[in-house]
Specification:
The chain has 146 residues and is an alpha/beta fold. The protein has helices at residues 15-25, 39-43, 55-76, 91-103, 120-125, 133-144, and strands spanning 3-9, 30-34, 79-83, 107-110, 128-130.
Amino acid sequence: MKLKVYLSGEIHTDWREQIIKSCQTQDLDIEFSSANTDHESSDSAGDMLGDESQSFWRDHKSAKVNAIRTKTLIERCDVAIIRFGEQYKQWNAAFDAGYCAALGKPYITLHSEALIHPLKEVDAIANAWATSTEQVVAALKYLTTS
């Protein structure tokens, strides 16, 4: 069974690549998708719609264009992996988790024990919580193995 997995959240480490490479090494039948992880192009996603003199409106337009991608890929996925890193607040990841919950899409959160309390509501709806990419890959292997 081919599984469609959406990778959401923190963009400052290589956690996505770790998961993808490990799944490929194990020959798991998974199709991965993700939000735009390039800061520059994500921040400028709405620039084609015209220049803005205020940064709020530039960010607003880019967020709306990015939301088209995010919404479409979450709706198409079978399961989402939502990563919360230590250094930055990932409001987009929390929003993605809420959207998955609203759609009834299963998701796995990936974060350290230090974030248990701040993410208690997000984790309460998650189908699983992992602290390492290895745990995520093990769960994906289970889901794709009959």
